Amino acid sequence: MIVVITVVAFILLATLYIGYQSALPKPLPGIPYNAAAVKSLLGDIPDMLAQVSKTGDIVAWLRDQNLKSKSVISQIFIRPMSKPIILVSDYEEARDVMLNRIKDFDRTSLTAEMFSGLLNRQQFTLKTGPEWKFHRRLVQDTMTPAFLSEIAAPGIYNSCLRVVELWQTKEQLAGGRPFSATEDIFHAALDAVLAFSFGPKFPHNATEPQKKNLRGFPASEACLDEHGANRDLAVPFPHAHIDEAIESMLELGDAMEQVKSAPSPRMKWWYVKATPTFKRWTRIKDACIRREIEKAIDARQINRNSSTGQAWERCAVDRIVDREEKHAQKEGRSPDFFSAAVMDEVFGFVVAGHDTMSTTMCWGVKLLADHADAQSRLRRALFEAYSCAVAEKRAPTVEEIMQTSIPLLDATIEEILRCGGTVPIGDREATTDTMLLGHRIPKGTLVFFLHNSHSILSPALEVDESRRSSRVLQAKDRGQMRSWNDEDIHQFDPRRWLVPENKNEEGGCHGSGLVFDPQAGPSIPFGLGIRACFGRKLAYVEIRIMLAMMIWHFELLKCPESMSSYGGCLAVVNKPRDCFARLRKVSL
Ligand code: HEM
User: Using one digit for the tens of pLDDT, what is the confidence trace for 303-344?
Assistant: First the structure.
């Protein structure tokens, strides 16, 4: 009997031991890692959580891993019993993989899992293939230059006018005190993307209720006290409720917060989706999108029956409906205007367009407030370029903003995108056993390219050149590798994007001596290659209009140190933890 018990206990212990050993993190040979991590089932999780609980900044922790190992490539273990995640902080390799190695690397299944409860069938979460191509074709007409300048830009401009009016009131009421700018910028970006998606007749917007809400706000509550002692205290402006149709879209987007740190995002979504609140917001959001699609179907029908021959599309949904009908005709099937593909692509515009844009603008407000020289130079360039508007003491029109070349405006946009780091990670998954920087990468391994790290925002880490891909080496031989000066790579300086006119003869503003060069140095704000950001052109239109209008109307003054940290918080995008504005009206 004792022998049997001993044997059973031994087998049990051995099984446990083997199970434990096989569950420990398994590093890929030759790629640096944290030695302590491979001795624990939790891998790097305790170390990551310890730092994130202190700084709240997971992106900084990721960046530190390559710095610690002094290597452009390292591996981390933050998903128990899974393959390691590879971190790469090198612009040239990231560029090569994203642009050229589309057969070896694709969008990750982790991204699909993270977004599965929100955008299950949207291009962002699909693997490259026939379904993804179908989605791209469905929305392809929404990013044409004509659509962007004639339809999208005026809607965005109107949203900017509203937030300018809101801030004019807040500037008066605040009397020189700072106030939180995050929500106003989020609302403005949301209104802009709603106008783009649903057109000028969409009945709701998020900024108008905030404007109305300030009517009863007593100036005495906000202004400086007798001795100016409250000069640095943020004014607690009230928040107004927004219509539940748009609130539903915000609330659903916020559900990502609950999922982002879950060990199994799919399981977490299963739970979140079962909650009555989530179900209610989904019902409201779906009903809203359906209504807008129905309006587009009606408008298309009316146009078909009329003989004016004029373009009838007023928004992205109109264009998607039109495209779906054309596809259906070509494929000999009935159109399905309410398919999961259409519904998710429309909602995807709102989610992708609103969070990324507002976060970028928040970084922009902070960076310009902290760099008064760069801000003044930009304002001077705007005044010079829109001299008629100055003479007539009015704001530039949307046409003036869209049609006037201002190299420094382009440069400032690019520098905000570089320094802000709205999307700090480029995700890819190896679709086959392959090599990266001379290391074997098995199929299914996740690779995170750190966009706001070495070679883009801090000096490049040394790399054994013989390990680089042949394409990168050829580019080096041809003198085509890009780099910033190590001395000032970490500084916010839009002028780094300006080059002498004769260096780049195409485009640019002749006569100024300097032109904007989008290839001046490394930066990957929108990703690259076939899976790069679909909304990139829209984003440039929107940032251009928002930035020009903001700098035209307001001086962004420096806020107190306690409100000026550059820590980020990563959910769908990397938002600044603090974004405050202290405004002074610009007089023309
Ligand atoms: C400043 C604003 C924006 C930034 C920084 C940004 C950044 C990005 C990045 C980094 C990616 C991943 C690219 C890659 O993996 O190579 C992406 C994908 C995407 N973005 Fe944006 N984005 C912005 C605005 C927008 C807007 C306004 C829209 C649409 C309304 C949009 C729609 C998308 C879509 C649909 C994808 C997925 C593309 C695919 O996987 O095929 N984005 N974006």
Answer: 877 766 677 889 999 999 999 999 999 999 999 999 999 999
With a 6 Å cutoff on the Cβ, whether 115 touches ligand 1 is no
* Element containing residue 76 per DSSP (H, E): strand 73-76
Question: Which CATH number goes with the domain that contains 227?
Answer: 1.10.630.10
Q: Can you tell me the mean pLDDT for 353-367?
A: 96
CA–CA dist 53, 464 (Å, integer): 35
Measured CA to CA, the distance from residue 300 to residue 403 in angstroms comes to 30
Percent of the chain residues topping a pLDDT of 70 = 96
Which of 499, 121, 128, 567 minimizes the C-alpha distance to 340?
A: 121
Confidence of residue 512 (pLDDT cuts 50, 70, 90): low
Q: State in Å: Cα 356 to ligand 1 middle.
A: 8
Give the position, in ligand 1's atom list, of the atom nearest the Cα of 427.
15
Q: What three-state secondary structure class fits 501?
A: helix
CA of 414 to the centre of ligand 1 (A): 15
3 state SS of 399: helix
Is any ligand 1 atom within 6 A of the Cβ of residue 418? no
Does residue 269 lie in a domain region? yes
Q: How far is the CA of 581 from the centre of ligand 1 (A)?
A: 27
**β-bridge pairing 554-557 and 574-576:** unpaired
372 domain residue, yes or no: yes
Residue 437 zone, left/alpha/beta (φ > 0; ψ -120 to 50; rest): left
| Distant-in-sequence, close-in-space partners of 296: CB < 8 Å, separation ≥ 6 | 315, 317, 318, 320, 321, 337
- What is the DSSP secondary-structure string of 535-546? THHHHHHHHHHH
Q: How many domains does the chain have?
A: 1
For residue 132, being part of any structural domain is answered with no
Annotated ligand binding at 533? The verdict is: yes
Q: Which protein residue has the closest C-alpha to ligand 1 atom 40?
A: 124
Residues of the domain holding 237? 141-425+485-585
Report CA-CA distances (Å) from 192 to 106, 154, 469: 31, 9, 42
CA 45 to CA 374: how far, in whole Å?
40
Question: Does 73 or 20 have the greater pLDDT score?
Answer: 73
How far is Cα 364 from Cα 579, in angstroms, rounded to an integer? 10
Answer whether residue 201 is part of any domain: yes
What is the four-CA torsion angle of 421, 564, 179, 176, rounded to 10 degrees? -130
Q: Is 165 exposed, middle or buried (0-12, 13-18, 19+ CB in 10 A)?
A: middle
For residue 223, the Cα-to-chain-centroid distance in whole angstroms is 35
Amino acid at 118: L
Q: ipTM for the complex?
A: 0.99
- State the DSSP string of 460-486: PPP--GGGS-HHHHHHHHTT------T
Mark out the alpha helices in 313-371 (DSSP H runs).
316-331, 340-370
